[in-house]
Amino acid sequence: MNGQSVLAAALVRGLAEAGVAHACVSPGSRSTPLALALAEEARIRYWSHVDERAGGFFGLGIARATRRPVVLLCTSGTAAAEFYPAVIEARHARAPLVVLTADRPPELRDCGAGQSIDQIKLYGGSVKWFFEAAAPDANAPSVRFFRSLGARAAATAQAAPPGPVHLNLPFRDPLTPPPADLAQITAAAEGLDPRAHVSHANGALAPDDALIDELAAFVREEPEGIVVCGEPEGGADLADAAAAFARAAGYPVLADPLSGLRVGPRPRDLIIDAYDALLRVDRFAADHRPALVIRFGALPSSKGLRTFLEAPSGTRHILVDPWGDLRDPLHVATDVVHVDPALLCRALARALRGARTRASAWSRSWRDANARVRAALQRRLDMIEELFEGRVARDVASALPSGATLFVGSSMPIRDLDTFFPGTDRAVTILANRGANGIDGVISTALGVAAVSPAPTVLLVGDLSFLHDLGGCLAAKRYGIPLTIVLVNNDGGGIFHFLPQTAHARFEELFATPHGLDFSHAARLFGLEYRRARDANELAEAMAESIKRGSVHLVEVRTDPKRNVELHGEIQRAVEEALGA
Amino acid sequence: MNGQSVLAAALVRGLAEAGVAHACVSPGSRSTPLALALAEEARIRYWSHVDERAGGFFGLGIARATRRPVVLLCTSGTAAAEFYPAVIEARHARAPLVVLTADRPPELRDCGAGQSIDQIKLYGGSVKWFFEAAAPDANAPSVRFFRSLGARAAATAQAAPPGPVHLNLPFRDPLTPPPADLAQITAAAEGLDPRAHVSHANGALAPDDALIDELAAFVREEPEGIVVCGEPEGGADLADAAAAFARAAGYPVLADPLSGLRVGPRPRDLIIDAYDALLRVDRFAADHRPALVIRFGALPSSKGLRTFLEAPSGTRHILVDPWGDLRDPLHVATDVVHVDPALLCRALARALRGARTRASAWSRSWRDANARVRAALQRRLDMIEELFEGRVARDVASALPSGATLFVGSSMPIRDLDTFFPGTDRAVTILANRGANGIDGVISTALGVAAVSPAPTVLLVGDLSFLHDLGGCLAAKRYGIPLTIVLVNNDGGGIFHFLPQTAHARFEELFATPHGLDFSHAARLFGLEYRRARDANELAEAMAESIKRGSVHLVEVRTDPKRNVELHGEIQRAVEEALGA
Q1: ∠ CA B139-B145-B147 to the nearest 5 degrees?
Q2: Residues of A in contact with B46 (CB under 8 A)
Q3: Which of residues 439-458 of B touch A (CB under 8 A)?
Q4: pLDDT tens, B411-432?
Q5: Which domains, and CATH codes, for chain B?
Q6: What is the four-CA torsion angle of B295, B296, B297, B302, rounded to 10 degrees?
Q7: What angle do CA B246, B250, B252 make, to 5 degrees?
Q8: Does the pLDDT of residue B288 top 80, yes or no?
């Protein structure tokens, strides 16, 4: 019997026992013992990907949607380096990944053997934990060790803050046990004490009474506060707790589309969903300097909000972070509160009960301005007949059925959603790869999300992002994963049209990088149903049809990047008028 | 005037002065000062790539073809991680790359700013040199420093052994100087002493007289030696020197297709080009144990050769390596000679002049067996009417005009070429990414080679490799790079059909990973001219037409992986018969 195959089976058993339910595997020879063990393990779904980069992001998508650790497995060599972008995004997005890289044993390292590179600490500081484990003989302690190693890897990835871990696992020839041995190998790994594995329970940092008392007293005395909610750390569901706190404090909540506060059935009077447009209006911003800012989650990307928060004002600025990260690129925080945000919100909501029973002039002013601006935005969008990226973002988000997930590209789509999406009572989930904000891996991540979502998933993505991860579409074809891809094609990097780079004589070549591709061929290559939407009605129809039929659709929307910049400007002028009136 | 733009211009000037002639740049904002400086520098050709991974391999291709350092530039974040596979391949292939990653300045690191990851030593031990250089004020010493830094980076990449270096360069807003300032910025960088830059001359390790005397004496006494030539380190041209030495010693030369010894006008009687098939014949191998093996370059991948070299025999086994790497995965070397291989070969050829004027029985026996085996291989290939991968490899390589380059995929194509390519008098160059042997980046590397080659370039690639780097085809469209891609499509990982994994019940799903794609759609997407070759004649015609017209062609050849394994077996039996007769 092949000893290292027994150990691989034990490792995989530990992973499954600790909650791993999905593995993304790229074909290779050196990784055979683990690939076979993963294929034999009934509790783990096996996803095969030709391109490790795409497989890595697909796994990240599953990890983000399920908030459980996902295994990535590849063979030795550059294959392992292909996981790097997804590993870095997982680290910043706090998503649990267990990266398993097969390796050559020491006698085949650094001596000119094929597909042999230095895999020790290959991902540097981007992983929470690195461990190199050579497969020794399959004696009882080794089998126990490998099962415990699998369980520990999954538990470490899951533990707060969640993130990627990396096990490097050398294997020797022969890599393939005779098929007849497989049942025996699995049985050997299963002959272990069923209770003996590393189980992992994670606590949360709770605020103490003194902290609650001090903050509640401050809030009680100070009506002019705001809450800023970005994407919660690690994808935690913070929306209800943050809303409860804001209600008790009577504070308006500036709610990023990724915060979860713009969606679902909830009272909306304190939800400021038009803050991006609102805070670009200088007079409003000057008249609404808060005395207190309480921030949860990542800082929203809104330029208007950032300028507003940066203005010197003597504001007390409290940053709440469950893991003590100092996520404050503006360097304006006065207090860092290193506790679990949901626990803090609920404790403060209790402490503030009855503190502010009527809406203050402050909160009414925010609410009224937000309503006027949002109405102006909606009115202007409805008037635009040509295809405008802001309207596309709003229409796509607003058309989602309850339970659906919208995955949003990192460049313009997420910014347009922030400005133009008024929210919906339907319980939809909005996700984006905003950990490291790359434009890479977006299709694959969305497919990973769609693969495990019972309800429809829609991806809103720009053409450069689409092109970057083109090969990722293969998984849609191979696994028939239902996904509606709305491709906003402005033939290049639309975001650069907003930047001073436009003034450069060779702007198109150096920054916009137009490609002139006809994406219907990409759809044909990967068996996606293609439809081009020429106006808002066609977009709505195409989305509805795709969601109804539950297959993979590519809905292309062509926009003009120059006209896009103009319309953004016109709309902001309409906002200023609405607020001046 | 924008100080950091002056420094960026000085850095780029230093790079150009040290011989950089090509830069592969991916669009981004943070990298703007360097992108503009590269665009302004007349001595550097600017190549734009949406996908940094493809851009990295494209740059690697240029570096391999020109053997001069090539710049890669990207913005901050996961973009930088996308270069990792190409950086690792460059390290192992000894190709000079200067990787420039733009970064956020310290005040925007590790504090939740967008697109900000830890880029310090991002590529770990895979680069020869890492340097972090913040742009200070553009005073005279700083400008000198940045120019010298550019020159030093290029020189270090180029210095023996060549490889990748990494400069991490933080920039602050505003990133874009007014276009009117560009000429002034360039002038400021040009106002430097034209002689004051780091110039770098590289020596080579020369063998001393004692070493030459000892080796020459040994060779003189020992007729039963062989020379094994793999891919030379760093792509050096070793073929003529190694052939001169072998001729003087009277030793047969087992010549890998990447060694350069199978091609070009040269005497062929000592060139053993059928060693892979020959050494699988047990009786021949047993009867031809050498007393001396002298090895140059990487160990060929031939399984027959590896088994032969491993057999215990008391052989003196000399490994010649210019950089003291111990490239001996079989652990059979008895002597490592750490000198420049060409200098050693020429010195030994001189010392052995007149030593062996007539062919020994030993060398005649190798030569005759090789001739019989090669004739049998050719005869069998000519008889196969169906499309067989071995014949495709031979026909493609044999059809190349003089001066052409053949780039070969890492999995089956390079192995088939080794077995079936008899060599040609035409001076063709054969290249492959055999540093780390990945299947990634193959299209992009070949396009990089083609971009700088005056003569035709042909890529022989399998379908999984093609699919892995599909997006790399965009560069062909954007730059109209002439390349003939011969795509051997066996619908999945054909190489696995040779391995014991085939016995597994879920072999197709876990290892072969068939995809069922119609690649004509990929050709349409990227504007490649597509042709399907259904037999050897159609393949020859399609290749000839593509080479003549000088555009980008995708010539698809569909093969049956199971039949492929059978034919390999039949042919080996024909070889055994030929040798037994």
Answers
A1: 105
A2: 509-510
A3: 440-441
A4: 889 999 999 999 999 999 999 9
A5: 3-190 (3.40.50.970), 209-370 (3.40.50.1220), 384-580 (3.40.50.970)
A6: -40
A7: 65
A8: yes
